[in-house]
């Protein structure tokens, strides 16, 4: 293999912002000047190393007929069925030696060639520019055999002036893309490495005297409501006069000269905000070109500890978002992205951090239009240097200064017109250093209208906003003391990996209590699983290692609130419920409505109420709530309700959209609140209480109790015609990724009573659970007592070589066709580890397909994730009761079950009714696989064929926490060994027919 030091390919390792006929960075503009879309079919050839690329390929006469075809935009590793390499995933670490600026000899290099015909009139005047919106990681470009530039900065726009190389008629464009370059060292974001030309390639005809750059700064004075439009143009002197028009505002101005900026008073204007994204269309035109800008008037300020927009403090209900699609990688699909953003809006998200690079430009158009506060982040991350103590970090190496500055220029200039952008972020996890300082200085000078963000600056040298990731609430509160007078955000929190994050509500309460805390951004929106298939054709979403990478970070790339295929996880509903901008609080004294929107009163909402008894509506209506202005609250009386009927009474109030909006239909529920109104006991029953039946030995050595059968150990075998196996107590749940990964310390190792911080570092919960043998408990029957009123068993559960155990007593009774189980669990002394769950496990026939229940729902809920849950009657397919996470793990738990009914074609209905014990009822999980099966599989397709439906009645479950990247389950939500009990009735009903 030729050495990378060969002079011809030295540019790959050059530390340079880019070279050749680069055009100065400028705004992404909607212009009427002609463009030629160069996307579509290109010829393609992949070489295993840069030095092997065919030198003749840049020659316009080169015969590429033997090459393959590829579509642009795309990533070649997602094309070619593996012939062109595979994606590779690493988080922090570099997949090549840390030897900057050098890269491995094995540097996959893809030559892309295409021919195009220049529109005939383009050479009559003006310039021709060639635009690249994104290619990874470096591209050398030839047009008609002339080298026109080297494009660097994978997620940044670059335009090259090719006027002198383009020719009338046919043209040949060649782009040689190298997967690795010196730039890979500053593009170490936590994501797949996906080489290729993945954003558009466009040819632009720039008119002489055109409006090359336009910046409209649309300010609005919050005190007077008057707007000022400051117009800054970059164009030659002969481009003047330039007209600026906004018919809606009656604005009509003519700019006669090239003053640095023209400030136009536009009179009273409506503000732009994420809640009310009011845009005005402004047309900037001269004789040569017309540019249309959708602008929004708003003022962003940092005043003391307040980050204000339009004079009001922000509350960021945000999410980190990558450009990602499970089939196309980072190729942007506007309709799909729009759908995803509507889903965000419908879940009360109001902010996006473009982690960790400027997104496709259309994302920002959508954010302007739909309403999102955006932190636009630069394409910069050098995290892998941390593994070597940050030695040689480019952030503090003067050789890299121009690269850093160029990246800041290209982000700010491209995106500066967007009202949605409320801060510029220097990048992510790049340590500290003078180059970051230089970026911040340049950005502040260029755009004093937006603050600068950078999380890794813990000494506040470069930033206007203090930012942290995955800090505990205690650490955040501490920051309000150590950084007084500064606004604070969590740019990443509540890591959405697998089942979790729990504890969102604790953050929200902390933000509420400390005005300097302006909210945060969930990590992250979507799993980055890549759709692929096993050798036998079974489709699945791949994560690190699935493409045969030897060096990777596994499933850490799947940590979204929506799965790779876009399916929302339960966390999305939980987040929506926790951060709702409309807080409805129900109390005996009345209802309080708190409008925490940035903008807009509650006049768009209908406050419907429903009174339910045992989950069935008995009355409903609409509350008369006068419109509440943003930032205000009001109260209204509760409706008059007839509380006489026997049963459990609940009042539910929903705030729903009265009319459709651009992001949701009429009737969309923004928030739900509930008030328990108590339980009315039924009067004395006329029916005589049936006497319990005796347990009697059966011929097979077991026992019969009414229609229930037990084996010799007292384990349930059947109820009537139904095989219902087990009923034993288990402590095991399939570890969630928050249970099994431990990036931060644990509360568990510290004294739960005293711990207020994060606790101490230590093994993950799953490691500790396994060490304690909770996945291999052995039963020892202590007593089995068949008696006149039922069967009682008492057994110990303990692990090999463990002195700790639990004592389980189960009392089975049969009366009036019903099997009752009372269960008591007592831990021995000496436990030093939490328990995942205390569950009664029953295996039922696989044919059960539908579940309906009265309890909490509709989604799953856990001790630290229950705000979205309400009490009511729900139904769902068994398949939909658990979540197909990228890695199989515990899911689907629903607390406080009252009644559950399972139905399946040809099977008798099976129902469970619970009675509270000391005020508590068990929760339940219904799943097609057992906790042990989930534990053993690394992907959903590795789960064995389902042999039955597993019902877990959980006397208790451990919380979820966020420890895969963040704090553990908080002490108050942890399941420390304690006595628990439950009382349940099982009933087997009639056989369901064809309708199941
Ligand atoms: C952060 C990082 C993100 C992501 C996250 C964990 O440190 O900024 O890019 O890696 O952790 O999923």
From TrEMBL:
Keywords: Glycosidase, Hydrolase. It catalyses: Hydrolysis of terminal non-reducing beta-D-galactose residues in beta-D-galactosides. SUPFAM superfamilies: (Trans)glycosidases, beta-Galactosidase/glucuronidase domain, Galactose mutarotase-like, Galactose-binding domain-like. Its EC number is 3.2.1.23. One of its GO terms (cellular component) is beta-galactosidase complex. The keyword Hydrolase applies. GO terms for biological process: lactose catabolic process. Gene3D superfamilies: 2.70.98.10, Galactose-binding domain-like, Glycosidases, Immunoglobulins. The keyword Protein transport does not apply. InterPro entries: B-gal_small/dom_5, Bact_Beta-galactosidase, Beta-gal/glucu_dom_sf, Gal_mutarotase_sf_dom, Galactose-bd-like_sf, GH, GH-type_carb-bd, Glyco_hydro_2. It comes from the Bacteria. Residues 704-987 form the Beta galactosidase small chain/ domain. GO terms for molecular function: beta-galactosidase activity; carbohydrate binding. It is an enzyme of class 3 (hydrolase). Belongs to the glycosyl hydrolase 2 family. This is beta-galactosidase.
